[in-house]
């Protein structure tokens, strides 16, 4: 019972991270488009932060999947 | 923070002879509190989970999974705050004042005040509190005289508001003394009387009165 509950929690967290990855991709494009609309390009630091976010969320997703498999065993 | 290179923002300069006087963002320190709160909540969750994992309520793997999920989400939220701050601009040109608030994917607002159509009666600079004094952060409040009421345009949390106040004061003084402006001689809520004009009388007729939330037509 306890394991089943954690299984659902983990599944929910994996979905959350997947949604975050999608959001980060779309958000980066949106921010770029805003920069073009206003003719104020994003600063170097913010661009790197957005890219880091994408990489970090993908890394988290992979790590969570690995841990999830390990945990499920 | 002033934006380098005022020759950007060409799309916003729509009126003839318009040029940018000031482009400002809010002070960066307004980001400190929301970022601090986000990370405080994050670390509280991590600490609580670490405590729970040490009591063997759940495994260390589950602890790591939750921490990375929360960390990823928090980072996205913090980035969103920073981008929203980056695209919140106050632009003053010699023809209008604009507040641009662009939150990518969420909302986009542009508030314009055409300086030809209003009369600026007051420019107030407000710096409140010790921290704001140290950081040189404050508001600039511009009061416009509308036909029936006064209205304020507020530049909130600006860095170096005194300098902005001076620039705006100079800009408005130039606008009010410029004879090419339509503004002062015939305010828009007055109209010349045709009959009197024929007779050589240059009188005006009061055609309408505007009240906030109310409209009254006068004959």
How would you spell out the order of helices and strands of chain A?
A: HH
**How many whole angstroms does the radius of gyration of chain B measure?**
26 Å
Number of domains of chain A: 1
Supply the number of helical segments of chain B: 5
Number of DSSP strand runs of chain A: 0
Please outline the major beta sheet of chain B. Answer: 4 strands, antiparallel
Characterize the biggest β-sheet of chain A.
Answer: none
**How would you spell out the order of helices and strands of chain B?**
EHHEEEEHEEHEHEEE
- How many runs of DSSP E, i.e. beta strands of chain B? 11
Q: Which structural class best describes the helix and strand composition of chain B?
A: alpha+beta
Question: Largest interface by residue count?
Answer: A-B, 34 and 32 residues
- Uncertain runs of chain A: none
Query: Order of strands across the biggest sheet of chain B?
Result: 1-2-3-4
Mean pLDDT of chain A equals 86
């Amino acid at each position: 019972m306890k394991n089943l509950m954690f299984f659902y929690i983990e599944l929910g967290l994996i979905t959350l991270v997947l949604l975050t990855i999608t959001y980060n991709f779309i958000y980066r494009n949106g921010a770029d488009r805003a920069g073009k609309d206003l003719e104020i390009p994003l600063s170097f630091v913010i661009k790197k932060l957005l890219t880091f976010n994408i990489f970090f969320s993908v890394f988290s997703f992979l790590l969570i999947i690995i841990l999830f498999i390990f945990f499920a065993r | 923070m002033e934006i380098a290179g005022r020759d950007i923002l060409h799309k916003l300069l729509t009126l003839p002879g318009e040029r940018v006087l000031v482009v400002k963002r809010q002070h960066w320190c307004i980001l400190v509190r929301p970022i601090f709160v986000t990370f405080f909540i994050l670390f509280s969750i991590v600490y609580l989970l670490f405590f729970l994992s040490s009591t063997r309520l759940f495994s260390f793997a589950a602890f790591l999974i939750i921490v990375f999920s929360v960390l990823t989400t928090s980072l996205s939220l913090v980035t969103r705050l920073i981008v929203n701050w980056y695209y919140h601009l106050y632009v003053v040109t010699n023809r209008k004042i604009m507040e641009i608030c662009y939150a990518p994917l969420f909302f986009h607002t542009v508030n314009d005040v055409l300086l030809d159509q209003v009369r600026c009666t007051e420019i107030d600079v407000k710096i409140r509190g010790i921290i704001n004094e140290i950081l040189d952060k404050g508001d600039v409040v511009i009061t416009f005289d509308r036909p029936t009421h006064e209205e304020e345009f507020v530049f909130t949390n600006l860095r170096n508001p005194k300098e902005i106040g001076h620039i705006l004061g100079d800009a408005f003084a130039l606008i009010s003394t410029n004879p090419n402006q339509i503004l002062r001689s015939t305010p828009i809520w007055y109209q010349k009387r045709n009959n009197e004009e024929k007779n050589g009388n240059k009188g005006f007729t009061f055609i309408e009165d505007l009240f906030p939330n109310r409209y009254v037509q006068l004959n």
